[in-house]
Amino acid sequence: MQRRTFIKQTTALSAIASVSAKASNSQNVAKFPVVISTWKNEKANTAAWESLQKTGRALDAVEAGARIPEADPNDTSVGYGGFPDRDGNVTLDACIMDEKGNAGSVTFLQHIMHPISVARAVMEKTPHVMLSGEGALQFALSQGFKKENLLTETAKKAWEEWKKTSKYEPKINIERHDTIGLLALGNQGEISGACTTSGLAFKMHGRVGDSPVIGAAVFCDDEVGGACATGLGEFVLKTLGSFLIVELMRNGKTPQQACEEAIMRIVKRYNYKEFQIGYLALNKKGEYGAYAIQPGFNYTLTTNGVTKVYESASYMK
Ligand code: SD4
Questions:
Q1: Which of 22, 58, 238, 271 is 20 to 30 A from residue 292's alpha carbon, by CA?
Q2: Gene3D superfamilies, from UniProt (predicted)?
Q3: Domain segments of the chain: what residues?
Q4: Which tens digit of pLDDT belongs to each residue from 190-200?
């Protein structure tokens, strides 16, 4: 099929299929190639899917998908338009991992619209995994990325409003929640993952969450599959959720069981009623799972060119 015809058909199908459906708690299976992302991210999945039609590579797909909310001024928790920290700075975290175990990440990066592509450049063009702050910015500029103001008028107004009380109260599932984590199985069935965020709104200056940490927000192992996370990053960091999920799958759990077990580790030790964590997992057979602490977590799946948003099961009902 001609690529353009294919894309047209895919987009049309996506539009028809983009309705919320209840995923069952049993193990779901998708045929590869497949793209799965946190929250309602149909445009990102469509971009990832189109990328798969071009190169067939899961790594390209997850990067292409992540770039969509990064450039969207209406998305207040990723890239351009992201809500700032409590001092008014938009600071970004992102990471990416491929099927060979290569990984790249940026933390506390400012003024660059596409941190995911900088993370990929860290992975491919440096001997390091993680670059932070001013060093990450210098590296991005050396790679030809443009320095931009990412604080939109809307985000600035929200920050000014917040300053009237200055209470740091992450409202999980209530404030717009769009940090994107993506997993894809490419045309060869290989796994890659990515995550990108502006972090929690009005956080302390310098705060870095789980999103740039390999093993916390994203982990992939081509022998097993991958996992990604969203929510209050401090708890994903404390439990190294994505690495845990991949190891649980390695030891025989289905993606659904592994996500549930990783949530239970948090539930058992922390005051889980006060925050949200959502996990996605995808194994090499195309089986996928999703689980969250609280209701309200959803995810977007693209398989056979059809994109749908599903509600995740959750520990609290
Ligand atoms: C963070 N995990 O910075 C991110 C926030 C998030 O949807 O996922 N928001 O802690």
A1: 58
A2: (Glycosyl)asparaginase
A3: 28-314
A4: 999 999 999 99
